[in-house]
Amino acid sequence: MKTHRWIFVLFCALALAAFACHKESTENTTTTDTYATSSSATDTSATTATATDTSSMSTAGTASTAGTPSSSAASSAASSVDPADQDFMTKVAQGSMAEVSLGQMASSKATNADVKAFADRMVTDHGKLNDELKQLAQTKGVTLPADVDKASKDAADKLSKESGKAFDKSYIGDMVTGHEKVVAAFEKEAKDGKDPDLKTWVTNSLPTIKDHLKMAKETKAKLK
Questions:
Q1: 96 and 187 share a domain?
Q2: Is the overall model pTM greater than 0.85, yes or no?
Q3: Residue 165: C-alpha distances to residues 55, 95, 121, 176 (Å)
Q4: Largest CA distance in the chain
Q5: Among 58, 152, 189, 209, which residue's beta carbon has the most beta carbons within 10 A?
Q6: Domain span at residue 29?
Q7: 201 and 113, same structural domain?
Q8: Is residue 155 packed enough to be buried (19+ CB in 10 Å), middle (13-18) or exposed (0-12)?
Q9: Each residue of 163-195: pLDDT tens digit?
Q10: Radius of gyration of the chain (CA)
């Protein structure tokens, strides 16, 4: 009977030891799993943070690029040519276009040979002067008008209604008055202009403009 009691006690002890070992193994496994899960969550968080940082850097870079003016935008800045010089260039461009247009009209409508010859000279010379001025304006960043002003259009419309000798006299009379003003404007610009390249062009063009005035006066004197 006593022997059976010791066997029972020994069995209980072995059972308790086995239960203790199983519990410790379970706890270790749970701890390991918990740590692995925690580590995985930490890694995911780090990856998300990295992605967020990368996205922020990309956005910041884009904003920086958008806020920085391009070289082409910088090069399209307003022209540095003095406003008075720009105004002179504008008026000369419009005047030359008007001279060409009126010259073409006179070349077909005039009855006097000298008037026709003068008109042809206006078409050739003022067409060339305007082309030169356009090239100069382009290098200076100055935009010239593409058409004549209203006053010139009105004058051309009035002249177009005349014919014969009346047309010849009106056309040459306008050319004398107009070229007197043009010569005065060119002489003033050659003296007071600020842009050296424009002043050089004006100085080189003056002899042609003065010759136009002389020719217009001589032609007008021949008309009766």
A1: yes
A2: no
A3: 82, 25, 20, 17
A4: 167
A5: 189
A6: 1-49
A7: yes
A8: middle
A9: 999 999 999 999 999 999 999 999 999 999 999
A10: 47
